[in-house]
Amino acid sequence: MSRTLGASEVSVALGLGRRREDGEPYVSQRMLWSRLTGRIERYDVDPDNVDAEIGKWGEAAVANRFLSEQHTPMAFGAGPLLGQPPLTHPRWPWLHARPDLIAYNQGSPWYPVELKNPRELDDDRWGESGTDQLPDEYLVQVIAQVAVMGAPFGILAAMARAPRRNKRVWAVYRYDRNEAQEASVLGLAHEWYQKHVVGGVAPPVDGSQSTTEALNRSWKPRAVTRFASREVEQICRRLRQVKTAIDQQESHETLLTQQIKDAMGEAEVLRGIDGTLATWRANKNGDRVFRLVVNEEG
Fold it and tell me: Which domains are assigned to the chain?
């Protein structure tokens, strides 16, 4: 059996993975597949990833606040850490979970608690506290955790790292187990796992930086020559054309910029009938900075 799919990775397999502000996925399907099939390391440890370090310590603060608000005799324990055996689905051994906390009832595991420390709890993605109105990628993670544990419900506690003014800072969400929804989500994940991990079919490339990184890290030096198909030959030709066009555009951009700078001379601002066209000033370090103004009036 290949490596198992974690609850937090199910959303990636379903195309719902967390994305950056510019739309880039943090982890693409190709990156996930490369990890699951052993082409690259299963987990990354990057001591220079400041955002990940902040999130790690932030989740400890989320745990402290969540536990301080519990007024029941129930016991809570940490979920399995990396390096420890995860919780595995009783029927689908390809699926595992590592909840941040596990609630125990009379000594037996009862339900999972997931901790999140997002930058903000914006209304577009996060519903009211007490509901299950979570961003899709987090809802899917809780659904998978509940399924693995066979729990009646799951909890997700979230505390905003840098909330906007007058916005929520803290919220606790509850997902009550829905077997029809669970079967749909895990059924799709099972199909993806069987096709791509068991069947060995690589997910298609998607143009993301995550996929580029996965391809770069998967390559290993071998004295092998492979002959391209007609389709790949055509792709190579198109890439050459694109790169040539980019080079020409960059050269043209340089020429136009030089012409504007030449026309400005020693002026700081270049104005036209409709407003400011360009500026050229010295910043606080004494460096000269040229800026073309786009869609600015007045």
Answer: 5-218 (3.90.320.10), 230-292 (no CATH)
